[in-house]
Q: What sequence folds into this?
């Protein structure tokens, strides 16, 4: 292995060891309706003997007993972990009942998944999603997003990939590549960081491009970072060139790291200096994460060219003095929450369609991107 690449991999800031220390959900709580769900829980109170009554109603020998929509809605909004078996039995009986007994357009799938997310019960949520007795119960795009986000928060990245393989075989109206789900898929591939998952991610990325679906910038950044981790900086460079805006924090940082990994230090340095002359009114300050700069420094030490080293010392000094180096990691940026909130003018949302089109509960979400996040998504 080339010494430069070997050294880069040893000090790689996107290494798997660093990835395992990051624990967070990808979509903010408001984005997937958890904040509203928590507020709604405060409005519900169980009548006396409600649990006992529902246990009786769900028994096999009580086929004449009915689980009404309001019964199910109530238990979902008050459930604790010890109630999950009862909730499961109520859902199954509700789903089994004659369709003519259901009125209105309330979709339980997303709310049930919020319940599991709120209680942090990923195994139970995944089990119920696959349950054949609840076929079609969770066929809303938002149900899948909420479940995947719960799995992501609990580092169950392989489960997310397997869930997607099942999901894409279903003939659902929103197709095989909804952007909000693909972000979670590629984020999971990035976290798994294996040669096999790299091949899988590349195939999916190519499929999307072949049918004319341009992946979000965040998606391309995930797979470019994964390419770096899998000793393929040349692929990372090719992926990055498909993105039109190269002024993003992630794009510049990944490009710098890829050039360093290939031993092309003199191609990396102009990218560092470009932020010093990038002048756009009201634009977010063009920064580099501290660990990217440290990685460049390590590569230059290995490179062994005195003049290049002096150039870098000068550039680093300017970047520090003018506030272009931020004390956070590139992995922090790649793992940044996508925050959605209501009441913002002219929103830009990758979840808007998911929550506007399939819940039918009067909930509307609009995007409020954290400062700097707009150039990551």
A:
């Amino acid at each position: 292995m080339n010494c430069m690449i070997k050294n880069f991999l040893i000090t790689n800031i996107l290494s798997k060891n660093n990835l395992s220390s990051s624990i967070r959900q990808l979509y903010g709580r408001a984005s997937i309706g958890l904040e509203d769900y928590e507020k709604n829980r405060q409005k519900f109170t169980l009548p006396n003997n409600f649990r006992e009554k529902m246990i009786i109603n769900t028994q096999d020998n009580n086929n004449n007993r009915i689980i009404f929509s309001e019964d199910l809605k109530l238990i979902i909004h008050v459930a604790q972990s010890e109630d999950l078996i009862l909730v499961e039995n109520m859902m199954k009986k509700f789903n089994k009942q004659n369709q003519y007994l259901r009125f209105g357009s309330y979709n339980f799938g997303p709310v049930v998944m919020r319940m599991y997310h709120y209680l942090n019960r990923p195994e139970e949520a995944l089990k119920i999603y696959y349950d054949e007795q609840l076929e079609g119960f969770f066929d809303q795009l938002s149900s899948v997003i909420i479940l995947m986000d719960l799995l992501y928060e609990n580092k169950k990245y392989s489960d997310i990939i397997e869930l997607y393989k099942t999901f894409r075989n279903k003939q659902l109206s929103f197709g095989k590549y909804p952007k909000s789900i693909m972000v979670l898929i590629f984020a999971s591939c990035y976290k798994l960081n294996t040669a096999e998952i790299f091949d899988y991610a590349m195939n999916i990325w190519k499929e999307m491009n072949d049918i004319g679906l341009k992946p979000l910038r965040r998606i391309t950044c995930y797979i470019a970072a994964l390419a770096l981790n899998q000793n393929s900086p040349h692929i990372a460079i090719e992926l990055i060139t498909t993105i039109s805006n190269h002024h993003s924090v992630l794009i510049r940082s990944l490009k710098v790291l890829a050039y360093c990994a290939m031993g092309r230090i003199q191609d990396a340095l102009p990218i560092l200096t470009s932020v010093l002359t990038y002048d756009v009114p009201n634009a977010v300050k063009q920064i580099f994460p501290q660990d990217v700069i440290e990685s460049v420094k390590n590569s230059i030490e290995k490179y062994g060219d005195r003049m290049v080293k002096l150039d870098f010392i000068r550039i680093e000094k300017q970047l520090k003095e003018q506030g272009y180096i931020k004390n956070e990691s590139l992995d922090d940026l790649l793992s940044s929450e996508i925050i959605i909130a209501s009441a913002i003018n002219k929103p830009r949302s990758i979840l808007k369609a998911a929550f506007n089109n399939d819940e039918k509960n009067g909930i509307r979400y609009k995007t409020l991107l954290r400062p700097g996040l707009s150039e990551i998504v």
Observations:
- The chain has a mean pLDDT of 82.
- Residues 1-21+176-335 form one domain.
